[in-house]
Design goal:
Largest sheet: none
Low-confidence stretches: none
Radius of gyration: 15 Å
Number of strands: 0
Mean pLDDT: 70
Strand content: under 5%
Structural class: mainly alpha
Length: 81
């Protein structure tokens, strides 16, 4: 069951990118929803890879959150230009 839950954000991104491109009135809404789903994908991947450090250190949690936000912002920069 945990393996299925892990891939739900990725499935949401694929469904969102394929089927809802023409559904939204403006491109901005589509881009922001895409970035939110990308953020939902990157954060669990980072948390899973640093699972041992997270339990003991709150600084690691903040670093993972900021790295995930930076990845999302980098993707948004390259998609918008």
């Amino acid at each position: 069951m945990k393996k299925i839950i892990k891939y739900i954000p990725l499935a949401l991104l694929v469904i969102h990118l394929i089927f809802f491109k023409n559904y939204y009135q403006d491109e901005f809404t589509y881009q922001m929803l895409s970035l939110a789903i990308i953020f939902l994908i990157t954060l669990p991947i980072l948390i899973h890879s640093f699972k041992k450090d997270i339990k003991s250190n709150i600084k690691t949690k903040l670093i993972l959150l900021s790295v995930s936000l930076l990845i999302t912002l980098a993707i948004s920069f390259f998609r918008l230009t």
